[in-house]
Amino acid sequence: MKILVDTHAHTIGSTHAFSTVHDYLTVAKQRGLEAFAITDHGVAMPDSPHLYHFINMKIFPRSVDGIVIFRGMEANILNENGDLDVEEPLLSKLDWIIASFHEPVFPPSTKAAHTNALIGAIESGRCQVIGHPGNPNFPFDYEAVIEAAVANNVAIEVNNSSFLESRHGSEPNCIAILEVAQRLNAKISIATDSHISFQLGDFTQSLKAVERVGIDEANIVNVNLGRFVEFLSLHHKSVVQALSKQ
Q: Rounded to an integer, what distance in angstroms lies between the CA atom of residue 194 and that of residue 7?
């Protein structure tokens, strides 16, 4: 299986990351990607870019040298209600919103609180995917959350970084989440969570997990650009119309 759209990448706008949009574009071309999303941390994170960083994503060309650049954010889940640190009018101008737990914003709590927060974020209509759900610091009811995701056309992320240097102890949770996702026919996004351009497009560990569980390729939303745009159309994203005019 080959993944041609990377849906999770951080620039130097998130100060613990080390690459520019141009760096990512260079690697995307080298590795044969069709598209990638820039998803710096939402403003509630201590190292996040200023709000203007996201507002000014409107200057991104829709594509450069045939590679599409999606305008996104890794939004923070703020509380048990599932509120996110992204509001209108910005919300509707971004193509792709990841909703994630981060310890500096939402201190780990109870399984019930995490479950409620995730369901709240999913049902809010503000996000298209749940980011790095395997984090062992944030256990949740897999069945309840994935049922909500299926009902609301929200994908579950398989985060390559969670199998490597981030969120140690995630792997068994990621596998268990994938097993529930497979049974419930959930949509899946495979992502690198790149913090430097050399990571872009390297989905090795995520693909091993997906293949181990036997996830149907038809349920992976970012196999290619066409599939990803089709998924975004379910969320009425303006990028769908913009790309259709190119």
A: 9
Condensed to tens digits (0 to 9), the pLDDT of residues 165-219 reads: 767 778 999 999 999 999 999 999 999 999 999 999 999 999 999 999 999 999 9
- Element spanning 115, H or E: helix 111-123
Mean pLDDT for the chain? 97
Q: Tens digits of per-residue pLDDT, 38-71?
A: 999 999 999 999 999 999 999 999 999 999 999 9
DSSP three-state, residue 206 = helix
Say how many CA atoms lie within 13 Å of 127 toward its Cβ. 35
Name the token pair of 24.
Answer: 């990512």
- CA dist., res. 17 & res. 196, Å (int): 6
Rounded Cα gap, residues 85 and 76, in angstroms: 6
What is the rounded CA–CA span in Å between residue 227 and residue 155? 13
* CA 64 – CA 102 distance, rounded (Å): 32
Q: Give the separation between CA 113 and CA 170, rounded to whole angstroms.
A: 19
| Longest distance between any two alpha carbons in the chain, whole Å | 47
Identify the pLDDT of residue 97: 99
CATH number of 5-244: 3.20.20.140
Six-digit token string for 136: 């062992």
> Rounded distance, CA 180 to CA 47, Å?
33
> Average pLDDT in the 13-25 region?
97
What one-character DSSP code corresponds to residue 134? T
